[in-house]
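Q&A log
Question type: sequence-to-structure
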Amino acid sequence: MDFQEAMGWVEEDHVFPKEPGAFHSKRFDWLLRETGLALDLRSVPLAVVAGSCGKASTARFLAHIAARAGLRVVLGTKPPLQETPEGNLERYQVSGPGGFRWLSPEEFRERVAELRPAVTRLHLEKPELGLPAPYELRAWILARTAVVQGAGLAVVEANMGLRLDPAGALPAPEVTLLTPVGTDHGALLKPPEGYRPELGERSGPFWHKVGGVHPDSPLVVGRQDPGVQAALPRADRLFGQHFDYFEARCTLSGSQAFLRLGGEVRPIRLITPGAFQLENAAHAAAAADVLHSRGLLPGLREAFWTAVQEGLAVTETPGRMQVLARRPAVILAVATSPEKLEGLLASLDHLLPASGRLYVCATFLDRIHRLSEAVRTVLAFPRTRQLLVTRFLDDEVNRDLNPETLGGLERIEPVATPREAMDRALKEAGAEDLILLLGNGMAAALASGALTIPVAPAARCGPCHPPDPGDR
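Response status: OK
Response body:
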């Protein structure tokens, strides 16, 4: 089996469960036990990042802090920017002297060769459990990679939930991070009948994500909706109480602020713009503080703070508020859920000058949840001048896109391709405006060359230099 076949076996030959009863961790638990991985993982410290918003960025920040502290780190995030055979390797990353690298095709092929016999046995011996889903196979490959690499820390981004997720079947994490709990995947993440009706649409995600936290794992909680925060059964460290940031300044070159962990304060700088990325960075630093207190990050306190500052300063977040060009500014953001868009747009509001307008070029994929609400969120942003959409879901969604339910429909313009959307935006946008490339489809078009950015590339802010005072 070559690499292409191995990736096809994981991503195409296995399918996402269609029935609610097929969502469980029994298959993954069986695979862990029967392959001996459950025992092997006891030697690998784990950090699990759960929640709805900012998981991938927060996981990246934590992984880079740990790597700067001297640990060998294995990092698993999702989804990749490119869901192609090669692009899917982004799901499995390993730290090294030159930074983080993706798993090589040969390494991936070896992991699949190890896993396939166990999946065959699962089907023959436990047919009642059903065949594993792609996300379960990915989780096994990531866990096995952590063991093979002798990782000093594995940072794992949970799937949609946690209670029934492969990440919830792993040994007790050394720390669990809970990012904001939203309403994403509410149709799949159902709660028991009558469970916390006061949380409304968040009751299901809350039951799955918060209810899946291992009781023996320290829990570090990021900023939450007030109702969610009030319902939390526990929080070892909580944003706004035990850690936060202040005096933030965000520009296209990056962000800077003062970070507070307990009674200690240090300046931090990021090469990623946006206040929500400062929140993610603070959350990751608080989790690193837990790891340091448990003796898992080496060094004295000053060495810890150096690792935090240097790790945050070099962390890149591809496709998540990624600056591609200036004047007009062009930013790529793949997340399209309403909750994520609200944070994204709030950050863009601080980056735009007073006269700046926003042009949104969006490609929505078929799996986008609550598309009409996402469109409403974009149109409700006061700076939005035009929304150029290359694809809607289906006739049902098209029927929902009407002036009575949305408002501002005259600012929506359907276009055929990402290239056409970009050309239209560039024709209208001035030097002080901002063009937002929204959705995985835009990232795919950039990678394939179907879309290029015909303006000057964005300058990079180095890890030791603050954003220029005159920058916006």
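Response note: The two ends are 51 Å apart (CA to CA).
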